[in-house]
C-alpha cells in the first residue's frame, strides 16, 4: 500500500516535531562467575548477553565461565548501564571495572528500577504533546510502563476521506503492572505487522517468544500486539502520582508501518483468572487524561499518511523472531549485515 502523503526531509509544515535519534536494541545484563563469589558484573551489550558472557569466559585469566542471571532489553542501554552503576557506586570493587559486591537479587532489582527511569515516561519530555516523537526506521523504541498508564491510538482521516478531516481515537490501551513494556518497532512493509484487535490471524502470536538462540530464556508474556499505519499517533498518558488534576503526556507519530508489542513479567489477572490484555481497561481515564487527549486531537495533520488496514487486508509475511530481535541471528550473519549497512551509509554520506 503506497503512502498518500510522503515524509518530508525538512521541518513539517503541519507543526513542530521531534525526530528521535536512530536507535537499535541492546541489553543491560547481570553476570555471575563461580570463581568470583559475592561479585556480579553489570554491563551492556548489543549482542546477546550469552555472547558477551562467552567472550568474557574465553579470557585466559578467567578460570570458569560466566552465567547470565538477568537481562533487560532497552534502546537506551548506555544510559541504563550508567544509571545502574551510579546507584551501586558504593558496592563497586574497582572504578575501572564493572564488578559489584552485591547480592544477585539486589543487582536485578536495581536494573529493573533504573529501567523505569531510563525508559519511563519522564525520560521523553512529558507535556510536549504538541511535538510528537517521530518513529521510522531505525527509530525503534522501548517504553517502561507503570500500572494504570493509558495509551490513545489516534488515526487521521486523511486528505481523501469522506468523513471529513482531523484526528479520531480508534483504540485505547492500558498497562496493568509496573515494569510492563511496550515496544514500537518500524516494519519494512504492512505485511510484516499484525494486530490482535482488528482480527488478524497472527495477531495473538508472539513475534519473539525467547531471548536466546537455544530458546531457554522466555520473553515477557505477550499481552498485546497491534499495528500502526503511517500517520498514526500514539498518546501516552500517566497519572501514576494519583493526582487526578494532572497527567504526564508524550506523543509518538509513525512515519512507517510499525509493530506494537506489549509484554508483562508480572501479568495481572481478571476475576476469572485470565491475563489482562492491553486493550482491556480496568480504570476510567482521569479528567486530565481526557483534556490531554482533546489537545492531541486538535493538532495539525501528520507528516506521512496511509489508510488504516482492515483485518488481513495484506497477507502476513512469514517473519522469524530474528527480524524483530536481530541479536538472535548467528553472529557471523549479523557482522556481515552490519558491514553492509556501514558501507551503504558511507556511500550516502551518513
Description:
The strands form three sheets. The chain has a six-stranded mixed β-sheet with strand order 1-6-13-12-8-9, covered by helices on one side. A four-stranded antiparallel β-sheet has the order 4-2-3-5, with helices on both faces. The protein is α+β, with helices and mostly antiparallel strands and 350 residues long. It has helices at residues 49-57, 77-87, 104-119, 287-297, 321-324, 331-347; strands at 18-19, 26-32, 40-45, 67-74, 99-100, 133-135, 141-144, 150-156, 167-174, 181-186, 221-228, 233-238, 248-254, 258-264. Mean pLDDT is 86; it is low at 1-22 and 340-350. 19% of the residues lie in helices and 23% in strands. Helix 2 packs across helix 3. The chain folds into two domains: 26-119; 125-323, no CATH class. It contains six helices and 14 strands. Residues 34-114 form the Bacteriophage T5 Orf172 DNA-binding domain. Residues 303-350 are annotated as: Disordered. Residues 331-350 have a biased composition (Basic residues). It comes from Amycolatopsis thermalba. It holds the Pfam family T5orf172.
